[in-house]
Amino acid sequence: MKIAFIGLGHMGNPMARNLLKHGHALKVFDVMPGLVKTLTNLGCDHATSAAKCAEDVDVVITMLPSSPHVRSVYLNATGILSAATPDTLLIDCSTIDPHTARDVAFDARAKSFSMIDAPVSGGTGGAEAGTLTFMVGGDSQDFEKAKPILACMGKNIVHCGGAGNGQVAKICNNMMLAIEMIATAEGMSLAAKLGMDPKVFAGIANTSSGRCWSSDTYNPYPGVIDNAPASRGYTGGFGSDLMLKDLTLVTEAAKAAKHPVMLGAAAQQLYQMHSGNGHGALDFSSIIKLYKKD
Ligand code: NAD
Question: Among 70, 90, 230, 250, who pairs with 171 as Cys (CB 3.0-4.6 Å)?
Answer without folding.
Answer: 250
